Amino acid sequence: MGEIMFSHSEAARYHSSPLAKATLICAFCAVAVVSPGEQALAQSNAEEGTLEEIIVTSRRYEESIQDAPVAVGVMTSEFMQRNRITRADDLMEVTPGATWESFSKMQPVASMRGIIAPTPGNASSEASIQTVHDNVVITKDSMKYPTIYDLARVEVMRGPQGTAFGRNASVGLIHFVSNRPSQNESGGRINATLGSDELIELDGFITGQFSDTVSARLAFNHDQQDGPTKSVTTGDGLDGDQNTAFRASLVIEPSDTFSAYLKVEYSADRDDAPVRSAYYQPGTGLVYSEDPFVGGRDTLEGPYEETWYRPDDPFLNEISSGFDFHTDRDILTLAAELVWSLDNDLTITSITGYLDGDTDSLMDLVGTPNNVSFQQVQNEATSFSTELRIDNMASDNSIRWLGGIYLMTDEEDRFEQNIFQADGARLGPFVETHMGTVANNTTDSYSFFGEISW
Description:
By secondary structure, this protein is mainly beta. Helix content is about 5%, strand content about 50%.
């Protein structure tokens, strides 16, 4: 059975009022438990007049949210579709106790419980809020926070979560769980949305059975939009974004005791670079900016003094022209999850993941029409992880336990340079100057983990 949906939105996704945010947060609270011991609220099943059970994997195995002794909130697929949650910043804005800001897609900054988890952007540092996608940990900041499409749910756990998820989950964790193929489902769906600022969104999926033991699902997403900041001189958007992604997955169930989930996913971002704003003080010729090489230097001449900055509208600005300012990101993900169910209620689970990400960006650091200061960053990163665990969580025993081993290796090559142009000189004659760094980092990690409950 197929389904096609079309909608038109006049409200740009970049803008949301405090009332709208408060309404969404209240709605999120209505579908998720945020502390142990509270009763889980779920969507009502109109036909049976009962409450649906919310399943989470906050302890690395499926259980009812009512039984999970952790601070976890859940956003279901229906909730995210209804409230147009398509990006990581949308997600964090409606999560109680969380905030979000970003220097760029390669350097996201999130917080939970008032603790900020910054990402300095170098090759060796990692944020203390961990990102997990289909049980595979994403260690590199440049590859975190994927586009939200065709997800079953998102689990947001406030830290520390080191027992179940290992390193760098001291502040919290975000787990993206994709919809999987099923023997009980066949068909597809397409969603299309048009909105202001040239917003175009198209996503959907198709799923079905290849045989009695093999099911497949193919999901896709494409979205693009002009940025909220417009050029004073041309009216064009200066900080738009564009994403294209697909996910292909298989579930193989040759017997009642074994199942395999295989996934390949690719995502490509082709965004404009973030826009910074400098401020011109009329009558003085002074430019104020965060960049120390601009300071109070009079760098503007001619008509730019009248056109490049509008104090009455912060979304009208101008940046240097003649350069291809951009933020490009390509991410390939391969994942395999194998599950054996043994006769004595024991379950063995193997999870293996591989990620390969390339990013490239060039941005105007100052935000003036003159060539003052630019930054170029290139990242090439890979990670490989594998996990093997055994548990008796499927049994009715009063004592339940889990144990496992986890191995990971990740590598990153990073090139960063700041380019100082002659137009930005403060002290007399100045020639174009490049200040760059090259960093290489390899991290090997392993852990043993376990849990006993009664």
